[in-house]
Amino acid sequence: MADATAQESSQRPWGYYVVLADMPDHKVKRIHIKPGKRLSLQRHQHRAEHWHVITGTAVVTRNNEQLTLRPGDSVDIPKGAIHRIENPGPDEMYFIEVQHGDYFGEDDIERLEDDFGRI
Questions:
Q1: Does residue 55 form part of some domain?
Q2: From 29's CA, which of 58, 66, 77, 84 has a CA 20 to 30 Å away?
Q3: How far is Cα 118 from Cα 63, in angstroms, rounded to an integer?
């Protein structure tokens, strides 16, 4: 079983994330998005996600909807849903991502569009 106190982190072109917990039945990340940046438009086959905005404003695409979230707001991303999150504001945006499912590897990301050529 992975250590729930592990502080794995990873730099990305849009910002970075820190893994707060990595357990067999869930994974929790604190994700930081730079102003004007967004994650790839993507979907997952093995996990659903719950996003909770801590600071800043987030624009979330979930299938055909677009939602604006502010600190304290949350959204659920079902397994298989096409989704993305972006930071339209002038400051960094932070949110907590709780993944739940049967597999949490980065290779479960199917990128459909990407600002950084990672398709």
A1: yes
A2: 66
A3: 20
